[in-house]
Amino acid sequence: MGMTIIEKILAAHAGREKVTPGKIVDVFIDVRVARDFGGANVVKNMEENGLTLEDPSRTFFTFDTNPTGSDQKYATNQQICRIYARKHGIKVYDINSGIGTHLLIDEGLVYPGVTAISTDSHANILGAVGAFGQGMGDKDIAAAWARGKVWFKVPPSVKLILRGNIPAGITAKEVVLNLLARFGANELLGYSVEMYGEVTDRLHLNDRITIASMATEMGAITILFPPNREVLSYCETRAGKKITPVYADEDARYERVIELNAGEFVTRVSRPGKPHDTVPIDEVKKIKIDSAFVGSCTNGRIEDMRVVADILRGRHVAPGVVLKIVPTTDKVWMQCLEEGLLKVFKEAGALVSNAGCAGCAAGQVGQNGPGEITISTGNRNFPGKQGKGEVYLASPAVVAASAVAGYITTPDDIPDQPATFDHEEREERISRAKKKAKPHDLPVVLEGRVWIIDRDNIDTDMIFHNRYLTVTDISEMGQYTFDNLEGYEHFAKEARPGDIVITGKNFGAGSSRQQAVDCFKSLGVQAILARSFGAIYERNAINAAFPVLTYDDLSGLEIRQGDTIRLNLQTGEVENLRNGKKGQVHPFSEVQMEIYQNGGLF
Which of 50, 262, 551, 568 is least surrounded, with the fewest CB atoms within 10 Å of its CB? Predict the structure, then answer.
């Protein structure tokens, strides 16, 4: 039996002839990155644990979260990283460079078959060139910096085949929004997805990047594209050497093989709150907008900029609408300058900023206010992710057209006269939003009071909002737990040391932030039981010696809110002490128990 792409990459980097799904292996990491988000914590882990760099030439900082240095805490963290970099000879892609994952491809650091990790939860974007990229927490990054390796569980693979012909006007962003409509946030949870079919073969590098960048929103470990000639040539030129790509064996084993007809794809938009809540654009057409955003690691390359410029040329942004444009890298920004696109943007009334992640990371332009409606090319629109308003996700063409129209629309349906705002309507919207907003040797057997939070897809922004990311002291983190989860804003005040949380599927989806784990430790919460966890979140919890366990069915225990349960981490046995009923969760693996008893990865 042969191997899939991810199995071959992991086997080669683990020094093994073969690996299979579920196998935990020590993987050599070719490229090891910390961003300004999380970078200072990586430095802290290195220094407090007396760790030294295994190979400075494979180690990098990328300052893309707040490339303007406009936030004092981010500026402090960036300077901590710069000082460490100078001391140890680490390359820094500073605030004038752009988004780290794109830089890794464009600078020739990552190419087919390479392994790379970053504090960026969208590091799996590197699957666009057939490389293994993963977002990880600061403990994992520090371990890789010191050892050159990190442990990783080989994921099962899904083969996704796109047949037919993509309809005219359907871009890569619509392709991935159609995939989200089909698979939701967790049907592909924990899988490595390989893309095939005649549609896939024709996709350009920028298209592959757009699709791969939203693997995280589908819960997938990665979306891997077998490199075509165009991608291979691009990577060889950037890397300055001949590259041998990694392809799956003909007899590779896939958990599932799924065929979809791309000819049925339609223009879709994600409604506010959930990237996977996508609908045909006709269902949201004519919804008035206050702002529009083009950028993020999903849609900020030169091809996206050209599409936007073609729509804006000779037109102007609608009155009362703010259009914000942020290229992915400084090289893209310079291309926009050389091709005259910046002039088009400015004459159309757009705000153009230097390269970076922009509003997606709450660190640059792109935030919105209460009641504000934004249409964005980003990959996430979780509540509070890009401000206090509502965010629709769409393609660059739809965003540009909507900015001109003043409401959500398509490029072929831009009105001669833009929509004007009903000020009473806008005031009412803001008023509603403000009313809705609210301020802001270990034991193997645990006993604790239960919090039942019966929801799926609770993401890291709901757990620990990105406005608190500069908090590095664990003792300060607890107060912000679930601050952005509607209905549970009171959790931090009412939780008691020893509590145990029971929740649904895909808990911890989203960002790689370690704080989303450490905030529970800060409160003294003992464990979290979930049907499934986001892959990065699960790693961060295990490495921090915080008990997270999965279950299939606990209904037989008849657990009520506030009951006390006894939980055995080693056997997985759970007992409801109120009624004596017993059940089972999946117990700790050997690796998890070893890290737990060690008090953490270090």
Answer: 50
